[in-house]
Design the sequence.
């Protein structure tokens, strides 16, 4: 008989995450502290929330910006720099050792969702690593990240859903988390075309 499918984290758990770029205190709280010091702060925040509502178990997470949109073009015209793989590897190891999640946040510049997902697949194959998309930094020709408000199509999100679902199925991973940062209604085009995908 086939092995039972791993249980999804949601909706049975709550997830508490700190976000940012390692070593840069201007890009989120994660850049202000060492991994260990930040975990202590995260645990203190967790205890405060548990005092209010402890009806569900919690998972702690770091959301690391894995590709950073740039105001100026790169040599390949992408307006994007990827975080050093060694740094991501350190966070992947640390979060695994402490039973935490690692969420990789993808900005895009002028690169495609397909390109950035391909680069992240080795990390996403780990059972505790998940994905976040940052549409505001995906810009079109003639636009600059941070100057123009970017967007992604529903089809881009569907592609990410299907890629994660396929990866989970092939690797026997638990259902994957996909976070889409939507701080403005315009950053997801054709949102009504989105549908749930089993495994995500």
Sequence:
């Amino acid at each position: 008989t086939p092995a039972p499918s791993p249980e999804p984290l949601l909706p049975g758990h709550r997830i508490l995450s700190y976000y940012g770029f390692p070593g840069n205190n201007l890009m989120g709280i994660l850049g202000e502290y060492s991994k260990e010091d930040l975990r202590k702060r995260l645990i203190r925040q967790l205890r405060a929330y548990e005092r209010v509502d402890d009806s569900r178990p919690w998972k702690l997470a770091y959301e690391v910006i894995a590709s950073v949109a740039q105001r100026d073009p790169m040599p390949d015209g992408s307006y994007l720099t990827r975080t050093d793989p060694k740094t991501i590897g350190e966070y992947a190891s640390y979060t695994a050792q402490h039973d935490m999640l690692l969420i990789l946040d993808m900005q895009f510049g002028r690169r495609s969702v397909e390109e950035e997902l391909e680069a992240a697949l080795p990390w996403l194959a780990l059972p505790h690593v998940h994905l976040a998309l940052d549409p505001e930094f995906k810009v079109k020709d003639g636009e600059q990240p941070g100057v123009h408000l970017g967007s992604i199509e529903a089809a881009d999100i569907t592609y990410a859903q299907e890629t994660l679902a396929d990866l989970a199925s092939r690797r026997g991973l638990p259902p994957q988390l996909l976070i889409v940062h939507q701080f403005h209604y315009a950053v997801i085009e054709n949102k009504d075309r989105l549908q749930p995908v089993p495994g995500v």
